[in-house]
Amino acid sequence: MTTAPVAPADQGRALWLSTFAFTVCFAVWTIFAIIGIQIQKDLGLTDTQFGLLVGTPILVGSLIRLILGVWADQYGGRVVFTLTMLSAAAMTVLLTFAYDYPTFLLAALGVGLSGGSFSVGVAYVAKWFPKEKQGTALGIFGAGNVGAAVTKFAAPSVMVAYGWQSVALIWAAALAVTAVLFFLLTRDDPDLERRRAAGARPESLAAMLAPMANVQVWRFSLYYFFVFGGFVALALWLPRYLIGVYGLDIKTAGMIGAVYSIPASVFRAYGGHLSDRYGARRVMYWSLLVGVACAFILSYPPAHYVIQGIRGPVAFSARLGIVGFMVVAFVLGFFMSLGKAAVYKHIPIYYPDRVGAVGGMVGLVGGLGGFLLPIAFGLLNDLTGIWQSCFWLLFLVVASALLWMHLAIRRMEQAAAEAGLPARALPELPEMQSLHGPAQQGALAASGAIRDWRPEDADFWAANGRRIARRNLWISVPCLLLSFAVWMVWSVVVAKLPAIGFAFSNEQLFWLAALPGLSGATLRVFYSFMPAMFGGRLWTTLTTWSLALPALGMGFAVQEPSTPYWIFLALALLCGLGGGNFASSMANISFFFPKAEKGNALAINAGLGNLGVSVVQFVVPLVITTGVFGWLGGAPQAALAGGAQASLWLQNAGFVFVPFIVASAIAAWFGMDDIATMKASFADQSVIFRRLHNWIMCWLYTGTFGSFIGFSAAFPLLTKILFPEVNALSYAFLGPLVGALARAAAGRLTDRVGGGRISLWVFVAMSLGTLGILYAIGMKGSTSAFPAFFGSFLFLFAASGVGNASTFQMIPAIMRKEVARLNPGRPAAELVKQADKESAAIIGFTSAVAAYGAFFIPKSFGSSIAATGGAELALYGFLGFYVSCIAMTWWFYTRHGGLLHDVERGGRKAPVPAPSPAE
């Protein structure tokens, strides 16, 4: 007899309530990481005794996992989970009655029951999901490790205010309430209900423990010893380490310890997703490789060196500061979390009926790492007297695990090659060979990029294509918005540098405003080809992460007025990393949409991405006036504003974007897709350099986007120089805002009317806007001069925004006709793919060339002012350029006989051949 299909509501409730319950359990399990520090002071314990105290709950929670996992398989995870939580809550209350070291150790044994809940939850959750989703589900459940961070955040404040006994009582009450809610709101797992319906008795303990005779269970557990045991050990040890090494108080040490604990917990769900999608072995390799690198960096103690140089001794010191430590700890925790999920991805695949027992044994060994390592850390401290000795041990553990795994995999592959077995028949890891059969083949392999992608097929687009394309678009938008924000942040910062003591000339300030445009435009030349070479998802993730470098660098540099000018030049160039991202982002998104929606999609991606310019010019003037990040953000700078003294936190101009950069990079890796047919080498894409229309569109797009980004960079400083009585930063964001919104709104209009026709009138409007600016400058001294100046600039920004959308809409339409004309004998489906590839490359390349406007426009204004004392010379040059754009658009595209005339005037349409069903 079988049970009814699993209801999605029951499935989701089981997963999320189990995750919440495990989070509370983990918070209780690691409680000694905080209260143990006060207990150590009260009892005068050594570091070795402290390590034993914080490790005792970990020992109990680890050892009991095996039997709790077996009971979960036998009697159901719902009941066992509830009883475990209630027992642990009672034991945590009894902790408050301890009075000396032996009684604290005895009480810690009872607290450790909470850690055994992991194997119960694994068995319970796994039975609600099919094997292709178990990696993600168990990863989400395992993210309950974040309970360690909850304790580090909340417990120090409670302990300081009310004492450590209050921490124990509050944590126990939370665990008891969670146990009751879990039992009332969940139901028994489908496997238990099936057995009850069939009248089957639970299997015996001996049958449940039978897999323990398989050597692969024990070998496999060793991986978990590092990724989980190492995590728990550091979660317990870091507050003590931070207090000893950096002299922090308990609250600050707890907060920074959470910087390690959070990524090592939350991203476990992400590791499960990656294991489902890209293969568990690949995730294991990255986890161990990065673990080796991070442990090596953290294991290096502060040192003072004296080198005998040519002119005498040269002395220098090497020390990892608190910020560097936090960054490395974050990275280590992140990759540990991926490794934990990758390990548990294997268990339900190879032991579907023994998830609790096998998961309990693997968790037991991993938990033993959390018990033994803190004791070893304390012992090493006492023996060596060096704080970093704990990371020496971690380095040895992870390096040994990586070497052993790699050599075992190589031996398995070599043996299979000699026997003539195909690689796809092998398991991910060699210890699973004896269990690997047809049912497991391919279950742990990577799913890889999307291979069937037919956006021009209406049925495919309606069924799956639109949903996937829109998800990629809406993840791409915030990544691109942040890229523009970082690219243009100097346009705001340079105007404030003189006020806080930087003695830079106007020419030097214009150079700082212009250099991000130069480097960003240059990087776009290369970035435009990268999505097709490496995949849009990977490239978007990497380039978004890269934004943190200039954002952090700027935040540190502006805090010290003695920072040399060349460092600011280097940081300005690094801000160009944000500018380069536009080319790859647009090239990537262009692949996802059909021709009928491509213009609108590109307009949304670019238009909302362009909002980053407006965001930076609106947000930065606000955040630099207050200490947003407290002590962590650094001290304020004294500034002169209108003759009065004020405080500025100019470093916030960079720091404020870092949390959003991290979140967007994670979202890109987690939610975006690669398209297999998008792959192309640089040689394949370089055909665009032989296309005449590539170069024409470079010229026209420079007229629209080059103007938008160049005026965005120059406007705040230009206004400050021409109208010093006006607070330029109060108005600067409006121009980019108008331009970005105009671009986003114009997408559908360009798809309907035609990009060529709209572009022609855009350049006429931009010429009129330039004349308006020249007229306003000539009125200088009049009360209406600035309103006319500002209004003309807004008109110019709006016209450039519409032109940004219309020129990009032209490119796919042009290439559909050109590729069909140049390749008359090729099949229709191949023509579509080739046209799309060339369109994407041209979109990226034209954006690269146009981005030089971010350099040339501010530099032109600076040179014009330096040479003539005014900006008129530069503006006359821009006017001449717009006139040339009018002529080229009309001649090549919109006149009778122009390439787009028949397409946009309702005549013969550009060929859009539909792929055959087989393709």
From TrEMBL:
The keyword Signal appears for this protein: no
Subcellular location: Cell inner membrane
Biological process (GO), any one: nitrate assimilation
Entry keyword set: Cell inner membrane, Cell membrane, Membrane, Nitrate assimilation, Transmembrane, Transmembrane helix, Transport
Major facilitator superfamily (MFS) profile domain segment(s): 13-413
Name of one Pfam family that matches: MFS_1
Recorded topology in the membrane: Multi-pass membrane protein
Record has Signal as a keyword: no
InterPro entries, per the entry: MFS (IPR011701), MFS_dom (IPR020846), MFS_trans_sf (IPR036259), NO3_transporter (IPR044772), NO3_transporter_NarK/NarU-like (IPR004737)
Entry's Gene Ontology molecular function annotations: nitrate transmembrane transporter activity; nitrite transmembrane transporter activity; secondary active transmembrane transporter activity
A GO cellular component entry from the record: plasma membrane
Family matches, as SUPFAM superfamilies: MFS general substrate transporter (SSF103473)
Lineage top rank: taxon: Bacteria
Chief location of this protein within or outside the cell: membrane
Residue stretches spanning the membrane: 14-38, 50-72, 79-99, 105-126, 138-162, 168-186, 217-238, 250-271, 283-300, 320-343, 355-380, 386-405, 473-497, 509-527, 539-559, 565-587, 608-632, 652-671, 692-716, 728-746, 758-777, 789-811, 840-861, 873-893
Protein family per UniProt: Belongs to the major facilitator superfamily. Nitrate/nitrite porter (TC 2.A.1.8) family.
Protein name, per record: MFS transporter
Source organism of the structure: Teichococcus aestuarii
Lineage of the species this protein comes from: Bacteria, Pseudomonadati, Pseudomonadota, Alphaproteobacteria, Acetobacterales
